[in-house]
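[job 4417] fold queue: 2 targets
>>> target A
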Amino acid sequence: MQLKKLNIVAIGGGHGLGRVLSTLSFMGHQLTGIVTTTDNGGSTGRLRKRSSTIAWGDLRNCLTQLVDENSIGSQLFNFRFEGEDELGGHNLGNLILYGLGKVQSSPMDSIKLVRRLLRVRTQVLPMSETPTDLMAFYPEGRCRLGELSVDEMPMMPTDLMLAPLVKSVKPCIDAIENADLIILGPGSFLTSVIPPLLVRDITKAINKRKGHCVLIDNIVAEHSPAAKLTLDEKLDWIESNIGCLPIDSVICQDKDVHSERVNVICQDLAHNKVPHHHDNEKLIHALETCVSQISKASNIEIAS
């Protein structure tokens, strides 16, 4: 059955967001990905230490998830150098984006060029064009800087912020304002889902949304202090840190999850061969379920 298409915005970090974009790639230009740009590990972290730049790794991963994995473009942008020399461990796609960032007028121009090279119809945007890092504050005045440090802490931070504070880009705000469905996650709660919500104009746009906002939870517990939180504790933490709760529904795997604050949709989401990954068809079905629950009021449907 051919259903009417939606304008969909998916927000998050590279691996989780990449899978969502891949799942919904049939939406083409009506799908927009807004990517977290605070990573400071691996190849991306090494490039950021070399000179001030946004984190390119998650953007590169999202772009390559939107092309045929057997294509030359995908193989080129996913190629990783081996060895112990200066190139060892670097991803070629990261180096290309980093180099383009030095010769183009803005990161947005670099991404547009790569989209043309890879023939990616879906709009992929950085949460900001300005380099920034995560800063976490813990009890007794302790502070940690950088994604790697945040995820390694044994306890939840009381506050999380961007240092420096940054603004988003107009296409991000326009996409959110025009979205019928806004998707957050899956991915690391503190380092993938939350960072874009710390960009104030993104949060303001989501808070004023006309569309429905759904959080896709992880299938298995993540290796971070957020794993110990219940769903409502996560929602309370979000509201405390950003000043609002921009979530209407949550899609999760665990049938024991419940909430006093949002609509919860519990369905089997796990991939049969890779249990910690979301299965494409199951995820689409869960999103269809979410949309069907609001379609009578908002007159929207999800495409398939």
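>>> target B
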Amino acid sequence: MLMTGIAGTELCKDEAQWLRHDAVAGVILFARNFSSRAQVTQLIAAIREASPRPLLVAVDQEGGPVQRFRKGFTRLPELGRLGVAWEGDRELAKALAHEHAWLMASEMRAVGIDLSFAPVVDVARGNRAIGVRAFHESADACAELGITYIEGMHEAGMAATLKHYPGHGSVLEDTHVDFADDDRPLEAIRELDLKPFVAGIAAGAEAVMMAHVRYPQVDAQPAGYSPRWIIELLRDELGFDGIVISDDIGMAAATGMGDVAARVQGHLDAGCDLVLACAPDLVPDALAACANRPAGDRDPVAMLQGRGEHDWRRLIANPRWQAAVERLADGPQLAD
């Protein structure tokens, strides 16, 4: 099953046709798809109308450097600022993490988004792509803040996605543009990077997004192409029974598997439930790669569907929304 990207701020004819394909579970939106809150609300409605089946609509609305929708939405601080708050007052930091998650998820649900791929529970250990997107360098801090973040998302009616399993924070390379190898043994990864994922799974996270990182002492394939990481460790050892999502097949570190068809098939064969094809020019080949595979069930869509009605006016009339905005939007609690 695929989640596809689209090119612009309106759904074109070819894209609407993609969404009727049996293999498509939903759409992931980016800044290129956004010009205003009213526009993106209309786009989301058009996406849903294009398919005879329920579709997921997703986005990366983490806050900080990765916030796709900005004008008309609360400008959220990066998660690393919650880690700074953790250094001074752990209970305050957890309260802020809960409020950050509730506010982010509530605003996304209010315009019809099912899920924002969050939270990042990688440890902050210098990775070029992760950086301030991570809570903290401490696995325990990431675990505690991640649990609270999941609770806030759930309160707002949104499923949580832990990323990037089994941990992207301890390598330097950015897998958008480079291959990345983490040459530590499994026990070292268990003692650090895996801890927040174990905690998040126990807290009820519904999805896990894979890292395009290779861990050669564990398996020769990058994690998203690895039955060892997905079936043996994530499913069997950690007991995760939710949805496994690949990272984008257009990223440089994904290309080692081969062409687009090989990447899609490799992720699905390894145990991924959803495969992200974020660049529109990759979508036709990704759809073709699914032609001879048996149609999947709709469990991923049902499990990750947003809960509750979406209504922007009702949200902003809620006193809690205003209080959360005042507390989080460049608030003094996070300034140091």
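[job 4417] complete. Note on B: The chain has 13 helices and ten strands.
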